[in-house]
TrEMBL record:
Origin: domain of life: Eukaryota
A Pfam cross-reference name: Ldh_1_C
Protein name as it appears in the record: UEVLD enzyme
Functional summary from the UniProt entry: Interconverts simultaneously and stereospecifically pyruvate and lactate with concomitant interconversion of NADH and NAD(+).
Family matches, as InterPro entries: L-lactate/malate_DH (IPR001557), Lactate/malate_DH_C (IPR022383), Lactate/malate_DH_N (IPR001236), Lactate_DH/Glyco_Ohase_4_C (IPR015955), NAD(P)-bd_dom_sf (IPR036291), UBQ-conjugating_enzyme/RWD (IPR016135), UEV_N (IPR008883)
Family matches, as PROSITE patterns: UEV
Gene that encodes it: Uevld
CDD domains: LDH_1, UEV_TSG101-like
Length: 479
């Protein structure tokens, strides 16, 4: 067979590192000469499309007998600095065994992909790990007999017998992670100061039966992570493998890119690129989780998480103004002695300077004059409270406490109202897909209902302004 570079033209304008890509694929061709190369259109989760080089073929897997597992790898235009997108390519008489490393669509998830780093990561190395993982759990089964269970289904059944379970489940249950005793499992992604603060706060709150600290970064263990390992908190696990997050009820995202970006847009784009390698794996291993975003800027990164995960909007929320609101209500109650006002007071909108106080109900008054007087009085108290809060920064441990508060409400289905970043489209005449902090009732499945705010033209104007600037920023990002 001819080398792909001899019989196929790779557009230099599209592939930034064309020579490196060709050189690596020559090595693949030598090792696996049965692979065929082509240029086809790939459709991403957000619906966008791109013409990408891909190759298809089979890899040999020993699982009792020898099997040739058909796969297809898509090479991104930033290869070799970005990992390929990998799929099974089953024939018409094959079924996919959904499992630890394969989803229902045949997409392949491996630690090697998550830890991809040029030049040590190569396609040959990826395929070797793929073969090793498939030899542990065969990803396909024959459809020649509708009643014949796949090898992985039989192993699953045997495992259940040893655990005292004898009910044979349907094929749809194949590959479910069997840590059912861990009903309230939380994963925190990111082992920086904020991630560790979240782990400690959640553990102290006692809401979760298990907390996983997932550190997807390269290099030696950070100081905080090492200390967690040394002092071994009960029910806290530290891992670099995304499979450790499987079946989490809540996944907290705290990672932020520390690249050398020059502009604010570059910083956010670096975070988006980081999330592209995290969200698909997280959503694969915990398909029913609530994603709780604490990365910055929280409104944009919550939107990015929603788009990349394809989760319903109710299950993707940002920490938003929850901390600000709790502080605001505390100051009103304890410092300004305005308990009546505090229970209806919220900080909403955009984190930072553009956040705005609002109210979910109006005091009952007899006439319009009293309405205006009540509003003026309330505004003065709110302004005093906001002045007090100006000096209060958001340190890692304080955000961690806020995250623990939110996860507690979700895991325990408290149906408590929190000001969190949620999809604001349709609220306050906002027509774009942006996330803003608004009072929401939270439960097991995330946002149950948005609480109606009192109509205030000034507040609506500020929310619309924030929505406009956030939407403009999002339009410049490459998802």
């Amino acid at each position: 067979p001819c080398f792909f570079s001899d019989c196929f033209f790779l557009p230099p304008s599209q592939y930034k590192f064309r020579d490196l890509t060709i050189e690596e694929l020559k090595n693949v061709n030598k090792t696996y000469p049965n692979f065929t190369f082509s240029m086809n259109t790939y459709t991403f989760k957000d619906g966008s499309q791109k013409d990408l080089l891909n190759f298809s073929g089979t890899v040999p897997v020993k699982y009792g007998n020898s099997y040739n597992i058909p796969i297809r790898l898509w090479i991104l235009d930033s290869h070799p600095f970005a990992p390929p997108i990998c799929f099974l390519k089953p024939t018409v008489n094959m079924g996919i065994s959904v499992g630890k490393h394969v989803d229902a669509h045949g997409r392949i998830y491996l630690p090697y992909l998550q830890n991809w780093s040029h030049p040590k990561s190569t396609i040959i190395g990826l395929i070797k790990e793929m073969i090793a993982k498939f030899e542990e759990e065969l990803p396909l089964y024959s459809l020649s007999s509708s009643d014949a269970p796949s090898p992985s289904e039989l192993l699953s059944y045997i495992a259940k017998i040893t655990e005292g379970e004898t009910d044979m489940k349907s094929k749809s249950k194949i590959g479910e992670v069997k840590n059912k005793g861990c009903f309230n499992k939380i994963t925190v992604v990111g082992a920086g100061d904020l991630g560790i603060a979240c782990v400690l706060a959640v553990a102290a709150k006692g809401a979760a039966a298990k907390v996983v600290l997932l550190d997807p970064s390269e290099g030696a263990a950070k100081g905080g992570t090492m200390d967690l390992e040394i002092f071994a908190l009960p029910n806290v696990e530290i891992s670099k493998d995304f499979s450790a997050s499987a079946d989490s009820k809540v996944v907290v995202l705290t990672v932020n890119s520390l690249g050398n970006a020059q502009t604010y847009l570059d910083v956010i784009q670096s975070n988006v690129d980081l999330f592209r390698g995290i969200i698909p794996a997280i959503s694969h291993y915990s398909q029913n989780a609530v994603l709780l975003v604490a990365s910055h800027p929280v409104e944009v990164m919550t939107y990015v998480s929603w788009k990349l995960s394809a989760f319903p909007k109710s299950r993707v929320i940002g920490v938003g103004a929850n901390l600000d609101t709790e502080r605001f209500q505390y100051v009103l109650t304890n410092l300004l002695k305005a308990q009546v006002l505090a229970k209806d007071a919220w900080i909403i909108g955009e984190q930072g300077e553009d956040k705005v106080p609002s109210w979910t109900s109006c005091n009952l008054v007899a006439n319009q004059t009293e309405v205006m007087a009540a509003r003026n009085s309330r505004e003065k108290v709110a302004n005093r409270a906001m002045e007090v809060l100006k000096a209060k920064g958001q340190r890692s441990w304080s955000v961690g406490l806020s995250v623990a508060d939110l996860t507690d409400s979700i895991l325990k289905d408290k149906r408590k109202v929190h000001s969190v970043s949620t999809l604001a489209k349709g609220c306050c005449n906002i027509n774009s897909e942006v996330f803003l902090s608004l009072p929401c009732i939270l439960g097991t499945n995330g946002v149950i209902e948005m609480v109606k705010l009192e109509e205030d033209p000034l507040v609506q104007e500020k929310l619309q302004s924030s929505a406009g600037s956030i939407h403009d920023l999002q339009q410049q990002l490459k998802l």
